[in-house]
Write a structure and sequence with these properties.
Length: 329
């Protein structure tokens, strides 16, 4: 894409629900232990929404924080994009619910579905709108309530996921003078659609189909296949967005929090130190589309990203999908 307008990130925000679900809580439900989960995934706890609290609520909270951080009024938003696989409804979109709650009366709104890559897809779309001059201020969010789609009888998958949201305001760089989007990559391979999927509840096997089984209305994954795919793609994507710079100049990597071992294996392949990488999977688990913007917001709040730093965002997930960004803060 030929960029006509330089594009930046004017502000960030995030939101997590209050309820903490620990590994010991899982040990009461399935045959597992804190030791196994920590060793194999790095997860110690994750957050779950309360009854009546949905993806749109977390997304709105994160968006309000990002708007405040950017000093942008909701009425100045031209577009709202929500990356999510756990929308409140099959229709309408979460983006429309967020538009209403924010009072963003001048914004178009739609959801972006590319699972764990959802936020990076929303960010790339926001970048394209701002770069082309079709929009000036775009809200891009990753938000999930995965706890609603977890099979609590499957010990391999149920321990992995958590609920959260993260948001950014994308705007012309001259306006915000930070977070310039320098390079981005998006990719997909639908032949791996069943590596991670929710088999039922969609149009192929609706509720009145003879094969409908409520037990298939949960996240199913081929953990080992995903593991191999994730390590390979994470490494490839980082190499792709840093192809025109010296990799040693990257101050911080903000990866999808899929599994601590996957992150470690990629760092090892790249020869990068662990200090150059944000890891918060111990506190939140895998929050899919919310994971990268949540980690980015936390890293900024902790002062781990300074003005002028080069950072890399990277994500991959169901679809299969993947993406990465190189950003100068
Ligand atoms: C799911 C994942 C943590 C499993 O870790 P793993 O090291 O690959 O473990 P395996 O699936 O090989 O299972 C090893 C053993 O642990 C057991 N096990 C699985 N989950 C367990 C749990 N929660 N507690 C205790 N034992 C468990 C298995 O039954 C298996 O036992 P066996 O050897 O007697 O058959 C790992 O593959 C992973 O993170 N994959 C990617 C996750 C993913 O798909 N995320 C979503 C997409 S972004």
């Amino acid at each position: 894409m030929t960029t006509t307008v330089r594009v930046g990130i004017a502000g960030t925000g995030s939101a997590v629900p209050e309820r903490v679900m620990t590994n010991d809580d899982f040990a009461k439900i399935v045959d597992t232990s804190d030791e196994w989960i920590v060793q194999r995934t790095g997860i110690r706890e994750r957050r779950y929404v309360a009854e009546g609290q949905n993806t749109s609520h977390l997304a709105t909270e994160a968006a309000e924080r990002a708007l405040a951080d950017a000093g942008v009024d909701a009425s100045d938003l031209d577009l709202i994009l929500i990356g999510t696989l756990t929308a409140d409804y099959l229709m309408p979109s979460v983006a429309c619910l967020v538009q209403d709650r924010l009072g963003a009366k001048n914004a178009g709104a739609f959801d972006v579905q590319s699972a764990c890559t959802g936020f990076l897809s929303a960010l790339a779309t926001a970048e394209a709108f701002v770069a082309s001059g079709k929009a000036r201020r775009v809200l891009a969010v990753g938000a999930e309530t995965l706890s609603r789609f977890v099979d609590f009888t499957d010990r391999t998958s149920c321990i992995l996921f958590g609920d959260a949201a993260g948001a950014v305001i994308v705007a012309p760089w001259e306006e915000c003078r930070q977070g310039e989007l320098l390079a981005s990559e998006l990719g997909s391979d639908g032949s791996g659609y069943d590596f991670i999927h929710i088999p039922m509840g969609g149009a192929s096997i609706p509720h009145n189909h003879p094969d409908y089984d409520p037990a298939e209305h949960f996240i199913k994954l081929k953990g080992r296949d995903v593991y191999r795919f994730a390590v390979t793609k994470m490494t490839e994507m980082i190499q792709a967005v840093t192809a025109n710079i010296d990799q040693d100049d990257v101050a911080l990597l903000v990866p999808h929090q899929v599994n601590k071992r996957i992150i470690d294996a990629s760092l090892e392949r790249l020869g990068w130190s662990h200090e150059r990488c944000v890891v918060n999977i111990d506190r939140y688990g895998n929050t899919s589309a919310a994971s990268v913007p949540l980690a980015l917001d936390e890293a900024l709040a902790a002062g781990r990203i300074k003005s002028g730093d080069l950072i890399v965002l990277v994500a991959f997930g169901a679809g299969l999908t993947w993406g990465a960004n190189l950003i100068r803060w």
